[in-house]
Amino acid sequence: MSDDTAGPAVRVRGLVQRYGDKTAVDGLDLDVRRGTVTAVLGPNGAGKTTTVETCEGYRPPASGTVRVLGLDPYTDAEALRPRIGVMLQSGGVFSGARAVEMLSHMAKLYAHPLDVATLVERLGLGGCGRTPYRRLSGGQQQRLALAMAVVGRPELVFLDEPTAGLDPQARRATWELVRELRADGVGVVLTTHHMDEAEQLADDVAIIDAGKVIAQGSPEQLCRGGAENTLRFTGRPGLDLASLLKALPDGSAAVELTPGAYRITGSVGPQLLATVTSWCAQNGVMPDGISVERHTLEDVFLELTGKELRG
To answer: What are phi and psi of 243, to 5 degrees?
Structure first.
């Protein structure tokens, strides 16, 4: 048993997991840096849930290695459990337990828990604090599960669909809590079906498909390295696009969609924008309505997997 405080919060190498004849995870590699938010995305059946459950210690690898805070999450579970928080989409709570009583019980299991009253207020659980778990709404159950995952001040927390079923106000409160966890040095592994959530919260995104990580990086890196971006502007009809293309970087394309409406695709950045405006000035063109359309994480996801991210 080792505890590598200098290494990543999670390191997965060559992970393989099978269910009978089906290979759910196929030689997967993944790193999660300490004190950052890593979003794990993938279409249904891609292997992301199996991967995360292995990192949480619920099953040993069929082959490969998994280390969480330097420990084997399966064989070192007793040592690791007090240091991590796990939020499940459902289950893990006695159906008759009252919300605040359950949270208070969880807090007593840790040496230095968060203040329960403050956490209850923060996540809007005060109004249902004495309600049995089975009578809570789906959103209330989600917020309680989140509170239970973080109340022990974990070094690393796994959040599974933390905002599923939440109203916009509760969703924003959850986002702020995740940001505060990161600011306090807590690592967060986030699985979500909301692309905007991943873009807003994640320092790193790992896209999993067919049991492998097919792309990993910051949202900005993935969007920049994915499909081309687009610049649009309007001007007088019939501009000499062949002349414009000579000034643009290699790999760019320009088309007049309708008379006077132009679209340029390629590696759109400050240099290309400056080139277009300079060309317009040299050719007596007054460009109007210049806009840059940045490809989103969802665009990249669809390009890489060919599938939508559905709940």
So the answer is: -65, -40
Instruction: Categorize the per-residue pLDDT at 2 as very low, low, confident or very high, splitting at 50, 70 and 90.
Output: low
Helix (H) or strand (E) holding 103: helix 99-107
- Range picked from 127-141, 149-163, 256-270 for highest mean pLDDT: 149-163
Q: What are the distances in angstroms from CA 28 to CA 67, 87, 164, 210, 264?
A: 13, 23, 27, 10, 37
> Cα–Cα distance between 198 and 204 in angstroms, integer?
9
Question: What is the reported pTM?
Answer: 0.80
Q: For residue range 71-129, what is the model confidence (pLDDT) as tens digits?
A: 999 999 999 999 999 997 665 677 888 999 999 999 999 989 999 999 999 999 999 98
Cβ neighbours for 265, distance < 8 A, ≥ 6 positions apart? 228, 229, 230, 231, 252, 253
Nearest to 152 by CA among 234, 78, 210, 81: 81
| Region label for 304, one of left (φ > 0), alpha (ψ between -120 and 50) or beta (otherwise) | alpha
Q: Where are the beta strands (DSSP E) in the chain?
A: 10-19, 22-32, 37-41, 63-68, 84-87, 156-160, 187-191, 204-209, 212-217, 229-234, 253-258, 261-266, 288-293
Taken in order of first residue, the domains within the chain and their CATH numbers are: 10-223 (3.40.50.300), 228-294 (3.30.70)
| Tokens matching residue 72 | 């084997």
228 — pLDDT class (breaks 50, 70, 90): low
CA–CA distance, 85 with 178 (Å, rounded to integer): 13
In this structure, of 14-18, 83-87, 90-94, 293-297, the range with the lowest mean pLDDT score is 90-94
In whole angstroms, how far apart are CA 101 and each of 22, 98, 156?
Answer: 42, 5, 24
Tokens representing residue 192 in the block: 């979500």
